[in-house]
Specification:
With about 1050 residues, this protein is of the alpha+beta class. About 50% of the residues lie in helices and about 20% in strands.
């Protein structure tokens, strides 16, 4: 007994099974986390090694190159890049997608163990870091204060950071630009030497005095009393009266030779929020956490915590991903709702019966809730990928139910009872319905196997659409006939019905269209040559539009945020850079009312360490993060505003380089810039090539934010020690280096402990004694004999120029010239940039190539091309199995190329770019467009088996299948329409997919209805002639010579 027959005969069981699915699905939906994208483990591992005091060149030679050589043998390594900066080496290892990063980390750790003993003694042990999408902060806050600014770190730690860290789902809470507390002992070198003291002696005395020590126990009576020496400084003022020496019988106190300053930590970083001194607080969620839920809890908790803060402390949200997520998901949910409404209207329009409409529409929630069950079971989230998947599927999940129901309706109209019609009609089409579904699955399921960034992004899409479509076909051959048997009734069609009724207007119109189509089809069958020529001309002309359609990697989304990085001349002091910050602040406030919050950071933080390598750093650098008013409240989109800012920044003569970005990307998430990579060991030669190329690219229309990745060399003073003079004076390099460092940078002598917190106590020369070259030359170094030797007596100080950082890729030095495309396609820009490269003289040993977004785009387009080939093969195999024919699938697949023609026309007419998103839409069409052709060809075969002549069979089948074909196409087209025309948050990302699918499906539907029957007729005629010739050759008497075999 068939499954559809059993379902009709056991309606209660059938309906309850689907009710149970809905209940489980709705429960799953309530438990799903909400995020922007599916959580993904990016195939990146970082290896960070610090070497305090070393220059970028020293770091490259002693750290980066040896570590790179050792790590290059790790399996599945795709690419290795590194940055060597003053004091730190960072190596990024890019693995093939799908690599087990835990195993890769173990291999890296094992390889590093062989080299750790050969690294410089003062270097730290290499640290291994893995990356995933949860690393990106989910919310940023801007914090400002006036009177409380100096003590802000402690206030925030106690009253904000610690409580927020306790929220479920929060991974970490961090502060940036914090005015940390520090105690400075500013020593007067003349007084120090007058009392025969050194920095080291003062530091050691402070360390020795600032301690608590247990001294054992004493027995008194029946009780043991522990003895404890209490020597720690309760406050910084105590240090002033510490005895540091004795001179002529008198005690010398610290205050006699130094000034004790308890203040905020000195830094070359100035952070402002809307022009006021401030800092930023950012929160990272735990892996798998619900971004929206965690953010909501953070905002709720913070609202109560701020009540206990001093009145002058202000906290304002700078940016949170949850807002964009909620807006995007709300927009997609609205799109989903509109799509469902359109589908309902289409079904109601063509069937004209509310009962039939209800039967069809029930398929939608059933298919969607099964998707929620899958997400819940696999631990996935509701995100824009999953919701887009459902938006794509919603127009297709009703297709199978439409085909089944339409056939059941025909049987009922011919006089069959609903129960019998439900079984017999389903029996006629169930195989075709399953096969059409398998063709769709054959296109979407391979998305789960695509490698690279495209595969990570669309794995969930492929799986969800496949699951919903499979669920829909199961519902179509079980629930649809069951409900049809229960709800449908025979209604006679009223031929003379009033015009205002369905039968008197819409049905008559549909009948007229059926007749018109049949006449058109019969004309096409008798003019096959003309139809074929027209088809070839249209196909060739439309496909040529791909050459004029702009291309890009991923469409940019308006997230109501702009970031900018501005660089002045390398070496510019912070106080000079701040003057430019003031100018820009004024410009932004006066000229850009769309900005409602400005956060700026001028200079660099010596303690930024690893984080500083993700962007430009230095006292000459200004970084901005600007929050815009919501997109609905402004006339200009974020791309237009960014372009206006570029024009304004270009007018400031002191600015050397700048970039303005409208989105933030973490490693592995794709890039929007195009890079020209220049490989070569000689820094001077590669710098010259980079500058020449940057000047030429700057003149190319559409190339914005042209920057060179390597900063200009910075001046540094190098102390050249005379070995002979050092030995004569009883000194060595280590003694001299340590002495100079302690007097200029400072010696961390001890820590001041208060209320559970610790603050560094740093001993050094006062600022006026370490500000000039003469001051450095006069630094006295005490040798083992107690003599004071001036640095100028044993060394020369010279000025040199050195690179602030050295980048490497594939174990070679590299410098990038990067730019952001604006209103021009990658393809056009690539041609002009390549021309500029060809015209630029390149020294021997230097290599130049284009990379960045263009390289990623080409890789993704190759993935899509491969996916198209795989999908075509799978679709062919499915259809060949159904029809038991190798020829019939080719007839059906004639509609596929014309779907691509429709894509080209739609992209051209709507001025939409060809991107990875629209490319995936084109792939989807392979499975969608053949569904209608399969149903049509299957019915033609059935009519021919029943004895109809070829043209008659085609005409009857065409007219019979016209409405199901148009209905299924219309539901898919209108289901995608809200996605294509949406203007809300995040719509820029998915609109191209909707445009591509609608254009391809409209065009291919016309082809299915006309060209596929014509091609079928051509192939069928040819097949009949072959059969006739085969019969004729078996009988020689038919050739007229009267002989038999």
């Amino acid at each position: 007994m068939s499954i559809y027959s059993t379902s009709v005969k056991r309606p209660v069981t059938t309906i309850l099974i689907f009710v149970a699915l809905i209940v489980i699905g709705l429960y799953s939906l309530t438990q799903l986390p909400v995020d922007l994208y599916p959580e993904m483990e990016l195939p990146f591992i970082g290896v960070v090694t610090t070497y305090p005091g070393a220059s970028a060149s020293d770091i490259e030679t002693n750290i980066t190159r040896p570590v790179e050589d050792m790590l290059n043998s790790v399996g599945n390594l795709k690419e290795i890049t590194s940055t060597s900066s003053d004091g730190i080496s960072v190596i990024f290892m890019n693995f093939e997608y799908g690599t087990n990063l835990d195993e890769a980390s173990n291999d890296i750790r094992s390889n590093l163990s062989f080299i750790e003993n050969y690294l410089p003694e003062d270097s730290e042990k290499p640290t291994i870091m893995k990356f995933n999408s949860s690393m990106m902060p989910i919310i940023f806050y801007a914090i400002t204060a006036k009177e409380s600014y100096r003590g802000l770190e402690k206030i925030l730690d106690e009253k904000i950071v610690n409580p927020l860290n306790r929220i479920e789902g929060v991974g970490s809470v961090s502060l940036a630009g914090v005015p940390g507390r520090k105690v400075y002992i500013d020593v007067d070198p003349r007084k120090m030497e007058a009392y025969n003291l050194t920095i080291e002696q003062i530091g050691n005395i402070l360390r020795a005095e600032n301690m608590n020590m247990p001294a054992g126990y004493i027995e008194m009576g029946k009780t043991d009393y522990p003895l404890r020496i209490q020597g720690e400084f309760p406050e910084s003022d105590i240090m002033k009266n510490i005895v540091v020496s004795s001179y002529n019988g008198n005690n010398v106190y610290l205050k006699d030779v130094a000034e004790v300053r308890d203040t905020i930590r000195e830094t070359k970083l100035d952070t402002r929020i809307n022009g006021l001194p401030g800092m930023t607080l950012y929160v990272q969620k735990q892996s798998g956490g619900n971004t929206v839920k965690v953010t909501k809890e953070i905002e709720k908790t913070l609202a109560s915590l701020t009540k206990d803060l001093p009145a002058d402390v202000k906290i304002e949200k700078l940016f949170d991903s949850a807002t964009f997520i909620k807006d995007s998901i709300s927009n997609l949910t609205e799109t989903l709702l509109y799509a469902a409404i359109f589908v309902i209207l289409v079904v109601l329009f063509f069937l004209g019966r509310w009962r039939a409409t209800v039967i069809i529409i029930v398929t939608i929630p059933i298919s969607l809730v099964v998707a929620f069950i899958y997400l819940f079971v696999t631990g996935e989230s509701i995100n824009i990928i999953s919701l887009t998947s459902l938006s794509i599927a919603i127009g297709m999940v009703v297709d199978d139910a439409i085909v089944v129901l339409e056939n059941i309706t025909k049987h009922i109209e011919r006089g069959s009872r609903p129960r019998e019609a439900a079984i017999y009609a389903t029996n006629e089409v169930w195989l075709a319905v399953i096969v059409t579904t398998l063709t769709v699955v054959a296109v979407f399921f391979p998305l789960t196997f695509v490698k690279g960034f495209t595969g990570i992004l669309f794995k969930q899409l492929g799986m969800l659409v496949s699951i919903t479509i499979i669920t829909s076909v199961f519902a179509a051959i079980t629930l649809t006939p069951t409900m049809s048997a229960l709800l449908l009734k025979w209604y006679p069609i009223k031929k003379n019905a009033p015009f205002w009724t369905y039968d008197g207007s819409i049905r008559k119109g549909l009948d007229w269209f059926d007749r018109f189509y049949e006449k058109t089809l019969r004309w096409a069958l008798h003019h096959k040559t003309i139809v074929t020529i027209i088809a070839i001309v249209v196909f060739t002309g439309s496909m040529s539009l791909f050459f004029v359609v702009d291309t890009e990697f991923f469409p940019a989304a308006d997230q109501s945020r702009i970031t900018a990085t501005i660089e002045l001349q390398t070496g510019t002091r912070v106080d000079e850079t701040l003057k430019t910050t003031d100018k820009i602040d004024k410009l932004l406030k006066e000229e850009y009312p769309e900005i409602n919050l400005i956060s700026s950071s001028t200079g660099t933080d010596d303690q930024a360490g690893f984080a500083s390598l993700f962007g430009a750093g230095g006292t000459h650098v200004i970084t901005y993060s600007m929050r815009l008013v919501p997109i609905e409240e402004r006339e200009k989109n974020v791309m237009v505003l960014a372009e206006e800012m570029r024009a304004d920044f270009a007018k400031l003569p002191e600015i050397i380089d700048f970039t303005v970005s409208t989105s933030e990307n973490m490693p592995g998430m794709g890039t929007s810039t195009v890079d020209v990579e220049i490989y070569g060991y000689n820094i001077t030669e590669t710098n010259i090539v980079a500058e020449e190329l940057a000047a030429k690219i700057n003149k190319i229309e559409g190339a914005k934010d042209v920057t060179i990745s390597r900063d200009k060399s910075k001046p540094e003073l190098q102390i050249i020690l005379d070995q002979n003079k050092m030995i004569t004076n009883g000194l060595n390099t280590a003694m001299v280096s340590s002495a100079i460092k302690n007097r200029v940078e400072g010696m961390t002598a001890t820590r001041l402990r208060q209320s559970g917190d610790e603050y560094d106590v740093v001993v050094r020369f006062k600022k006026t004694s370490r500000s000039t070259l003469t001051d450095i030359e006069n630094i006295g170094i005490t040798n083992p004999m107690g003599q004071i030797i001036r640095l100028g007596e044993i060394a020369d100080i010279k000025e040199f120029w050195s690179p602030p950082s050295i980048a490497r890729k594939r174990r070679e030095r590299i410098v990038n010239v990067s730019f952001t495309p604006y209103k021009r396609s990658f393809t056009e820009l690539q041609t002009e940039v390549q021309k500029a490269i060809n015209e630029t003289p390149v020294p021997t040993g230097v290599m130049v190539q284009i990379s960045g977004a263009i390289e990623e785009q080409m890789e993704s387009f190759m993935d899509i091309a491969f996916l198209i080939v795989v999908s075509l093969i799978l679709v062919y195999l499915v259809m060949a199995s159904q029809f038991e024919s190798l020829k019939m699938p080719f007839i059906i697949m004639f509609s596929i190329p014309f779907a691509f023609s429709g894509v080209a026309i739609a992209l051209f007419l709507t001025n939409t770019t060809l991107s990875v998103i629209s490319g995936i839409g084109a792939v989807m069409l392979i499975g969608i467009v053949v569904k209608n052709a399969i149903v049509l060809v299957d019915f033609i075969n059935l009519m021919r088996e029943r004895g109809n002549e070829l043209y008659e069979a085609i005409s009857i089948s065409g007219r019979s299948r016209l409405r199901p074909v148009i209905m299924t196409s219309a539901t898919t087209i209108l289901g995608m329409l809200p996605l294509a025309i949406s203007t809300g948050s995040g719509s820029e990302l998915w609109s191209p997919m909707g445009v591509a699918v609608i254009g391809g499906l409209v065009f291919s539907t016309l082809v299915t209805l006309v060209l596929v029957p014509v091609v079928y007729a051509i192939f069928a005629k040819h097949g009949e002639r072959n059969k006739a010739l085969a019969v004729y050759s078996d009988f020689d008497f038919m050739n007229g010579n009267g002989n038999t075999k």
